[in-house]
Amino acid sequence: MIELVGWICLVISLILMLYHNYMYTNYDEAYKYIKRKYGDRLSKIELPSKEVHFNYGQKFSHYTAGFAGFLIILNLLHGE
User: Fold this and answer.
1) Taking the CB of residue 73, how many other CB atoms lie within 10 A of it?
2) What are the pLDDT digits (tens) for 2-27?
3) Distance CA 3, CA 74 (A)
4) Which residue has the higher pLDDT, 6 or 78?
5) Crossing angle for the helix pair 2-25 and 27-38, nearest 10 degrees?
6) 9 burial level (CB within 10 Å; 0-12, 13-18, 19+)
7) Residue 20 class from Cβ within 10 Å (0-12 exposed, 13-18 middle, 19+ buried)?
């Protein structure tokens, strides 16, 4: 059961890392599209900055590495 939770957390952190890295690298194009699509409805919403996406991308890359390491250790312990 703990291994299943580890895999779920690994997949979620990997997806979030990829999302934030994509938003960081394509910030201008992505927010230009969002502003064009939603227009006036965005006036009440504060969009995250490019630095925020960079920081979250770094944070989730560390989480991804941590969960991968955790699963490797569990696999090594389970194999014995």
Assistant:
1) 11
2) 889 989 999 999 999 999 999 999 99
3) 7
4) 6
5) 90
6) middle
7) buried
Please name the residue ranges forming H helices in the chain: 2-25, 27-38, 50-79
Burial string for 38-59 (b: 16+ CB within 10 Å, else e) reads eeeeeeeeeeeeeeebbebbee
Q: Which residue carries 């059961």 as its tokens?
A: 1
- pLDDT at residue 80 greater than cutoff 70: no
With a threshold of 0.85, does the pTM exceed it? no
Tally the C-alpha atoms within 13 A of residue 17's C-alpha that lie toward its C-beta.
16
Alpha-carbon gap, residue 35 to 57, rounded angstroms: 22
